[in-house]
Amino acid sequence: MILLSTPSIKDFTLSQQALFNILCDCALYDPFQRKWDSHKIPRQAAIQKIIEFFLHKPETFLLLKNRAVDDCDEQVRYEAIEGLAKIPDQFLDSESFFNFFRERVQNETFQRERNLQLNPRLAALDVLVTGYFNDPRTTELLRDRAINDPDPQLREWAKQQLVTQGQITES
Questions:
Q1: Neighbour tally for 37: CB within 10 Å
Q2: How far is it, in rounded angstroms, from Cα 133 to Cα 108?
């Protein structure tokens, strides 16, 4: 049993499965839309708690994949990608893991409107650079993003990664 420490529900206890189900429901179906970048929305908070407490559950992998692709909020997609990077190896097939993140880099629809926004494409590319540093497909993707990504922050980050890898010289 987990005792929730929020003062308004201080004495309320839930089984871990019930709490997981509530968080999943919130992550999937809460309709709240972000008004300001600094405000965390319920879906984002639910994803963070699922990552914190339920990363070991096989269902978490599928939920995070779903939210990384299908959530309308880029910060929720970012959190889901960050969470997927922490999934235990027993749930992963290395090639499908690589392909999923490559697909996120290539098809993520994020458009930067403000400087402080977190870019899900960058999060996915970072997972590939961290986990597949020596894979030529990662270098190819970095080169493409350094030239063609619509986000100037990601383009700069990709160039820095290529410099770190020794693929290009700093200009």
A1: 14
A2: 21
- 1: pLDDT confidence band, cut at 50, 70 and 90? very low
pLDDT of amino acid 25: 96
Give dist(CA 97, CA 10) in Å, integer.
40
**φ, ψ at 164 (rounded to 5°):** -60, -40
Distances (CA, A) of 109 to 10, 21, 62: 41, 29, 20
CA distance 10 to 8: 6
CA pair distance 70, 117, nearest whole angstrom: 18
Angle at 151 between CA 149 and CA 154, to 5 degrees: 80
Is residue 12 scored above 90 in pLDDT?
A: no
Helix/strand/coil for 87: coil
Average of per-residue pLDDT across 129-134? 90
- In sequence order, what E strands does the chain have? 2-3, 13-14
Whether the predicted model's global pTM rises above the 0.90 cut = no
